[in-house]
Amino acid sequence: MIAEVIVDVSAYPIDRPFDYAVPAHLETVIERGSRVKVPFGPRKVIGYVTGLKSESEIEEHKLKKIDELIDLDPVLSPELMDLAKKMARETLSYEIDALQVMLPAAMRAKYEKFISVEKLEEIDDARVLAALNGRTRIPLKQITDPDVLKLIKDYSERGIVSVDTAISQQTKVKKVRTVHIGNSDTLAELLLTVHPNAKKQAELIRWMLDHAGETIEAAKLLNESGIQNPVLKAVIEKGGATEAYVETYREPDAPKLLDTPIPIRLTEEQQTALDKVKVAADSGKAETFLLHGITGSGKTEVYLQAIKHVLDKGKEAIVLVPEISLTPQMTARFQERFGGLVAVMHSGLSAGEKYDEWRKIHRREVRVVVGARSAIFAPFENVGIIILDEEHESTYKQEDTPRYHARDVAIWRSEHYGCPVILGSATPSLESYARASKGVYTLLELSKRAKNQPLPSVTVVDMRDELKEGNRSMFSVQLAEAIRLRLEKKEQTVLFLNKRGFSSFVLCRDCGTVVQCPNCDISLTYHRSNESLKCHYCGHEEPVPLVCPECESEHIRFFGTGTQKAEEEISKLFPEARVLRMDVDTTRQKGAHERILRQFSEGKADILLGTQMIAKGLDFPNITLVGVLAADTTLHLADFRAAEKTFQLMTQVSGRAGRHDLAGEVFIQTYSPEHYAIELAKTQHYQTFYNLEMAARKQYGYPPFYFITLVQFSHEDLLKVADFAEKGTRYLKNSLSPETVIIGPAAAAISRVNNRYRYQCLIKYKKEPKLIETLQQLIRMYRTNWMKDGLLMAVDMDPTSIF
DNA sequence: AGCACGCCGACT
DNA sequence: GTCGGCGTGCTC
């Protein structure tokens, strides 16, 4: 038997199956989707079996044997194996990368070289002996001294030591020690025989008599009986109980926030939507729904009941939410409804916890998975429904290879299972809404709030007028007044500051110099916490200069409106206000999000001040005011999605206010009140926004009227990158059809990152059957010739932004 | 990607 | 004379 194996090596000529002979004893167990350890050239690597056959075209003497089978149960189903192949092609990535992205990171193999001592008596160098320190096997990377390294190489050639590569995985199964307490007869008997001095043992046995026959976790037993471990050990030794180590799951402490119950009785709109989904689920045909429901319209309840429907039919459900750790309320609701049937996968979990959740799914111990992007690869084999909440979110697109979009993967999987997909959003992406308008997706509308609350009243404040009135603070008179009122009424305020593109920078007031990153074409961001300047692209960090680096003037100070600065202004304006700040700085530690949100939900603060991350999921009854400090920051980005993103953000943020009994009020501060994205956020009129934005997209030839693909080039040498970009672009122009528009090559908006100059070229097309082949050819040219010249090239199909 | 093989310059 | 630089080519 011959196995086709894709090996764990991401390189261009390796991106294809290699044939291996299957040893006889593995023939009955090996399957497509199994992982194997195979010899590859001079080393050993992990690989995935992509197929089994009886004959190979490879000459017999070249054919090697599979070393070992890693999993008894294949880790990937045939469906996921096929999906990996399709995804690799569609995203122009290596098949191995597509396979690996489907499994939790803990299952990815680590390769580490080790030195093993073969003939200890022949090692005569003191430094080598010191490095070994009595051990016979040490990791090669522990040797840093080049002289010692040289000696090791010497020894290795003479066979005194050997160097091998160990393949390790972090897939540790957690085990817990349990104690099975013996029956009362044995215990009673034992009690009579213990030494009179062993008071503690006697005490434990008496405690055990009350629990005879039970099995209990050792830690719990010790805790409840108040006995020390050595005593327990002695009793076990004497046969009073037996101990065992039982496989267990790490329980991520699920943050419990209050679920705000929505009436289970559905509104008429919800019911209509649900019925259509149910019909599709029963039909066995794939159908994609766009559930367009305004904020507070009860989309989640529709999801929950649709899931219930498919679970009742014995099928499974996948629910995707954008960065789930930010929305503990959402997970809480799923766990409340489906209890132990739910696995949760999000970035806040440790590698081990993610692996445990994956195993629960793989072993069919759960039937619902709620998770971030990668949960779309949940190893279910009878999927009944797939849901993407907040489908417009850009986090569904992976930013490095394989650059897949979870929405596309969801639809591919639904076609395999003949099941519905629900894309839910208050502000759908233009692509999805356009597809729904054309009938590719089925549109479901929820236009009323579930509890019939009015939408919050939204006021747009023109900050230019404020400036004219002499108000130079970050808060308009109106917003400040509204905050004061909330403080008086003991209601809560959420202040939103979109930091991106508007962060604090350091400017010299004499010569106008802005302190730039030495490696990147971008200004450094001021961080008050440690008085430093940081680059958000390469991580460069330096202390705040005391004098201008250009003109040595002392009139150098930081400008802009970061959250830290906003916090200071608030405390000046409202000294009595209790403020919680939520941004990258305050949420770096694990669990920080939850802690801040819990504090706010418990009413321990009056004002929550934050960036992007507070726009979603917040659902607390006492929030009656939302203020957007600077709505323009996303508007002026050089990106075709700028208006869409702004509108989505404004709508999302506004939706945080007045979700319950108290009426909500929203203030949006801006320097461009006349822009339609802001104007329309006032009424949350998605349809009107859609029409206007579609007109703009049509005029400039952007999605959804055209598909786009971005080809990025970077090189340390400006002239070289320009040259290669030109070559690549010319190749594309010559190979693609004349209707396809190719823009560039041009320098990227941030023209240098980490000392590499960046160029890009944008392909816009309506129909381009040769695109994938052409790009593959381009990539081939790059990998075979240009790469060794130091060029980096990346292709992104359907980029979310064209920065 | 690794890793080995192989062919030319600067040292003991 | 040898050590070692990294160009080239291969991996079932």
Can you offer a commentary on this structure?
Belongs to the helicase family. PriA subfamily. GO terms for molecular function: hydrolase activity. Residues 280-446 form the Helicase ATP-binding domain. It is a single chain. By secondary structure, this protein is of the alpha/beta class. It has six domains: 2-106, 3-Layer(aba) Sandwich (GIY-YIG endonuclease); 110-169, no CATH class; 175-247, no CATH class; 268-446, Rossmann fold, CATH 3.40.50.300; 457-503 and 560-697, Rossmann fold, CATH 3.40.50.300; 707-796, Alpha-Beta Plaits, CATH 3.30.70.360. It has 23 helices and 34 strands. The strands form eight sheets. The protein has a seven-stranded parallel β-sheet, with helices on both faces. The chain has a six-stranded mixed β-sheet with strand order 5-2-1-4-3-6. Helix 5 packs antiparallel against helix 6 and helix 22 runs antiparallel to helix 23 (771-786). The longest helix is centred in the C-terminal third of the chain and has 18 residues, at 718-735. It binds a DNA duplex (12 and 12 nucleotides) through residues 2, 4-5, 7, 9-14, 17-21, 38-43, 56, 58-59, 62-64, 111, 788.
Provide a concise account of the structure shown.
This protein is an alpha/beta fold and 803 residues long. Helices cover 32% and strands 24% of the residues.
SSE inventory with pairings:
Blueprint: E1 2-7, E2 18-21, E3 35-40, E4 43-53, E5 64-65, E6 68-69, H1 78-90, H2 95-101, E7 110-117, H3 126-132, E8 137-139, H4 146-157, E9 161-168, E10 174-181, H5 184-193, H6 199-209, E11 215-217, H7 218-225, H8 229-237, E12 241-248, H9 268-283, E13 287-293, H10 299-312, E14 316-320, H11 328-338, E15 342-345, H12 351-362, E16 368-371, E17 383-389, H13 406-417, E18 420-425, H14 430-438, E19 442-446, E20 457-462, H15 463-468, H16 477-489, E21 492-496, E22 505-508, E23 525-527, E24 532-534, E25 541-543, E26 556-559, H17 563-573, E27 579-582, H18 592-601, E28 607-610, E29 623-628, H19 642-654, E30 665-670, H20 676-679, H21 686-700, E31 707-715, H22 718-735, E32 741-753, E33 756-765, H23 771-786, E34 792-797
Helix pairs in contact: 1-2, 5-6, 6-8, 9-10, 22-23
This protein binds a DNA duplex (12 and 12 nucleotides) through residues 2, 4-5, 7, 9-14, 17-21, 38-43, 56, 58-59, 62-64, 111, 788.
Domain Helicase C-terminal: 543-696
Domain Helicase ATP-binding: 280-446
GO molecular function: hydrolase activity
